[in-house]
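Re: the multi-chain job from yesterday

Posting the exact lines I submitted so nobody has to dig through the queue logs.
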Amino acid sequence: MDLNYTAEDLAFRDTVRAFLDANLPKDLQHKVLNHKRLSKEDYVRWHKIVAKQGWVGTGWPVEYGGTGWTAVQRHIWEEECARAGTPAILPFGVNMVAPVIMAYGNEAQKRHYLPRILNCDDWWCQGYSEPGSGSDLASLKTRAERQGDYYIVNGQKTWTTLGQHADMIFCLVRTDPNARKQEGISFLLIDMKTPGITVRPIIMLDEEHEVNEVFFDNVKVPVANLIGEENKGWTYAKYLLGHERTNIAAVGRAKRELQFLKRVANKQQKNGKPLLDDPLFAAKVASLEIEIMALEMTVLRVLSQEGAKRGPGPEASMLKVKGTEVQQWLTELMVEAAGPYAMPFDPAYLEGEHEHSITGDDDAAPLAGYYFNFRKTSIYGGSNEIQKNIISQMILGL
Amino acid sequence: MDFNYTPEQQQFKDALRRFIDKDYTFEHRNKIVHSDKGVSDDAWATLTELGMTALPIPEEQGGFNGSAVDMLVVMQELGRGLVVEPYFATVVGAQFLKLAGGQEALLEQVAGGELKLAAALGEKQARHDLSDVSTTAKANGEGYVINGTKTIVIHGGQADKIIVSARTSGEQRGTNGISLFVVPADAAGVSIRDYRTLDCLRAADISFDNVQVPTSALLGKEGAGWDILDAAADYGATLLCAEAVGAMDALNAATLEYLKTRQQFGVPIGKFQVLQHRMAEMFMQAEQARSMATLAAVKVASADATERRRTVSAAKARVGQAMKYVGQQAVQLHGGMGVTNELPSAHHFKRLTMIELTLGDTDHHLARFAAQPGFKDAA
Ligand SMILES: Cc1cc2nc3c(=O)[nH]c(=O)nc-3n(C[C@H](O)[C@H](O)[C@H](O)COP(=O)(O)OP(=O)(O)OC[C@H]3O[C@@H](n4cnc5c(N)ncnc54)[C@H](O)[C@@H]3O)c2cc1C
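And the result, structure tokens for all chains:
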């Protein structure tokens, strides 16, 4: 057993670090490291910088413009990005719809969409969930009826992350209302500018506009936008779920946030000493740090078993649950560390309208919002309860 | 033993609930929150009419001489109703005046709803430790000159008068040498930076720049303010425990309703055993919290300060644990709906999170509990 990176891996890490040093704009880095709100332009700008380097499609085969990296290299890339404080490359295009297009799309679809996804020419969003269909996704009701060369789509999607910026949405729609619930579903790509689409904002606990409801009222979608076969959409959706799992636990970010937590806890005074010297608080941070160490080893163990191309496995559920627990625990301790300073709310500061927060404690200012926002992580992408159901059924056979 | 409310307590509770249900709906409350002032004069007038401002004030000053147990009833309703008015700040301020004595005129104004108060106790370096005071008050011929900055003063920007802890002698973190003053919010040299908190209340950072106050502004004796401060803060913590219980009740009721109505996989989600157990735990957490909030309300007026500190810290610590569990689980069981700002539940969760950070968090009170005389005695 050897827990060290190989010489090639280390050389790769140096290359990645050099790239990040030279190319990550300082203003973007500042926003990310300080938990400020990111704009659409921020995401697009970073995506295009990485695209220019050819490093967006980290999980993609080389023939489609991917990097062809090994799982370990992808892990190193993600960890270094997290460490440096880059904006995320949003998953909806690159990691969600692209693998489906590659596996099940036709040539025209591949040629059109894949390069645009790599270059962030289209902003994609995910249209799966509906008001009545969350965990029970297969019960979805949005209808698509074929009329000649078009589908006519009617219904409503919800929780559409960053859909307010989107050019394209990939949707699960019901094309056969009479089939068993998993069997009458199709996978459609829809242009968000099509008449009949309305987007309504949903404001989150931290008062940020992050998710949306999307309404479809007689929306005409060309049949050319159907992926694969009609009524086979559930198969494609399942293929997508958990496809990209190297980063699902976000260990790199957890390690960075741990440093941030320690910084806050070192600056905050308790009885005239740094809070981190307080045995009660130190013990909590230590437990969390140990949990992150365990998580990192678990991620690496899962990665090392991943062959060249294997479908999603139930291990992804474990990484999701433990990863989100760590993230939520981090945000919880950050608020605790900030103490009363976590209370003031200063959206103008978070949006970058002024340099310093209203109370002058810039580290503390975003933390309560961050904590509230991160309650989402145990809910989205299949709630942690659902992930545990998967583990107990698929791994434990219960 | 009698855990029931008296007829008077029940009346207060009913009147308050009627007002909140009718005139302080969630929509209305949101309008108030997003108004410039962040509080409502009309709501304050009604709270006064209902006798809420008079409730904790002695009869001689036109009040009802209500105990902390009476206040338990009121605070639970305010917690349930997500009331953002400066009531808590004012009654805690009044408690300082009561404990100090000799403040009859001001107490009368509080009873009549004419005077709003806030207690400026926290400082940047102090975290939850109220004896860590670097603000100074220096005696001069005319009284005292106050200098320093107080932070995160709940409803500091809405108060007419502010109770300030300042050091007249002693070490920065010592309990000796702390004095308390009543300072008009518009006194020369007082500057107030008012802001919203994420639970939609208001707080302020207040700085005192050579603020001259007369000797009559001193509460109690010079340098001997700590006992009053400690007791008044315990009173405040007790009220917060009660408010938290009200908020937890509301969260549990909403979550239970959601479990019964939200359908997934063809059944109400409350049919999933893992959620049933979670809901059962939330219920038990709230009951344990209610017990401790009640105990604190009974003991907070205790003549024995050790007994008072022990129970109040036990309550705040235990309620703190319950708040976190109930708040987080309520969000989780609501699924996506739980993380939106649209449900009252979201705001109950946020309020609970902020209560944890007010007047000492769970760790602070665990440590204070363990530091009381007798804790180390073996049985
Ligand atoms: C911030 C955010 C962003 C999102 N982004 C997107 C997006 O971009 N596109 C998209 O399509 N969707 C998105 N979602 C939707 C997300 O996938 C759903 O919220 C999630 O699947 C849960 O569904 P629900 O909200 O309807 O909760 P419900 O399914 O109603 O669940 C409510 C509660 O019941 C529990 N529960 C349900 N079934 C079971 C069971 N069988 N056993 C035990 N417990 C159960 C859940 O775990 C949860 O605690 C997003 C959600 C959030 C919060």
